[in-house]
Design brief:
By secondary structure, the protein is an all-alpha fold. The two termini are 21 Å apart. It is built from four helices and no strands. The chain is flat, with a radius of gyration of 20 Å. The model has no long low-confidence stretch (mean pLDDT 78).
């Protein structure tokens, strides 16, 4: 189960150029489904398509612009792995 914890931390986006990021950037590629038959059932699993090198490079460029304006403690906060343990209630957490 995943949680989204609201925080009061603000990140300045003035240093980033996010003009290339549109709704089409996040859209999935349409794949044509074939009819199911016995040969498809026993066929080897198809390889999943990962993130393209173009999107990886674009994300890295965008992150560099944002990271320049962050202090060291905010960078550590954003990199930290978040998990809830016993008796931690998401609605009571304040960051």
């Amino acid at each position: 189960q995943r949680f989204c914890i609201a925080t009061s931390t603000k990140v300045d986006l003035k240093g980033a150029n996010y003009d290339a990021v549109t709704d089409a950037y996040f859209a999935r590629e349409a794949t044509k489904k074939s009819k199911k038959d016995e040969s498809g059932f026993f066929a080897a699993e198809t390889e999943k398509a990962g993130v393209s090198d173009e999107k990886k490079a674009g994300q890295k460029k965008l992150d560099e612009g944002i990271a320049k304006g962050l202090s060291a403690d905010v960078k550590a906060y954003l990199k930290a792995r978040f998990s809830l343990s016993a008796n931690m209630y998401p609605h009571e957490l304040k960051f």
